[in-house]
Write a structure and sequence with these properties.
By secondary structure, the protein is of the alpha+beta class. The protein contains two helices and five strands, in the order E-H-E-E-H-E-E. It is globular and about 35 Å long. It catalyses: an acyl phosphate + H2O = a carboxylate + phosphate + H(+).
């Protein structure tokens, strides 16, 4: 199975609302590895690695996020594959 990595930049009301925790939970549920990290500008960076369908599903989920969040935009870019152990909250 082909494994890919994609980086997402999620903006809106995405910090202080449990966004990283819920993202990690969704990623694990989909069998992905990577991380969710708060950025200084108020956005959240998400790295998701695994099956193309799993990464695509997480990308669709990120456009809405958890109920506590208000996502304004979700920009994704392909990145070189890298192995992560688990899905971490940074």
């Amino acid at each position: 199975m082909l494994s890919i990595c994609r980086k997402f930049l999620v903006s809106g009301r995405v910090q202080m609302v449990g966004f990283r925790y819920h993202t990690a939970h969704e990623g694990i549920k989909l069998g992905l590895t990577g991380y969710a990290k708060n950025l200084n500008d108020g956005n959240v960076e998400v790295m998701a690695c695994g099956s193309m369908s799993g990464v695509d599903q997480l990308g669709e989920w990120l456009k809405q996020g958890p109920r506590t969040a208000s996502v304004e935009s979700c920009i994704s870019s392909e990145t070189e594959f890298k192995h992560y152990s688990g899905f971490n909250i940074l």
